[in-house]
Amino acid sequence: MLTATKPRVTEILKATGYIDTRWYTEAGRDRGTKLHECTEAIDVLGLPIDTWPEYEAKLKTWVEWKADTGAVIKAVEQSVESDEYIGRCDRVVSVYGSLWVVDIKSGSKQYWHKLQVTAYALALGLDRGLIVYLGMGKRGREVQVDFDFPQYAQEWAAAVERYKTLGEGNGL
To answer: pTM of the entire structure?
Structure first.
């Protein structure tokens, strides 16, 4: 159960200037939400991707990534909580011989995505995260696994500290 008084990871990222909400649209947010619901139905219920013809190409990239890597889903929409923040990661998977936090993105790559995944991993006591971008790259996807986790862990810790200095009412 998530503690309501702690800030969400995305709240911290917005307040500290990592997320610029000027470029987000309701249609994009709705598409992302729907794709997350679809990938969850695929992973939990085993529904086929052609259940959603309008998203079939993007969903195919998720299914292919899992097949290509041999990823085993350990948790779906996993709540995370640290002493200082809360959140919900898309997946915890066993892949490449280790447990990883996986975030599924339907939009363009953003710098803050790495910080978000890092925060989730740290809250779960993990030191690995990756991002699967649906509908990008040569095979319709791009997987971001090559980021320097310790560097982003340090930057995330600094963002949390900056958030604390923003004043009362921010939950920390």
So the answer is: 0.89
- φ and ψ of 143, to 5 deg: -115, 125
Highest-confidence segment of 105-109, 121-125, 126-130, 144-148: 121-125
Adjacent-strand bridge partners of 126:
none
Phi and psi, residue 86, nearest 5° = -130, 170
Which residues fall within 8 angstroms of residue 129, CB to CB, at 6 or more apart?
Answer: 100, 101, 102, 103, 114, 117, 118, 120, 121, 149
Of the options 3.30.240.20, 2.60.130.10, 3.20.20.10, 3.90.320.10, the CATH number for the domain spanning 9-164: 3.90.320.10
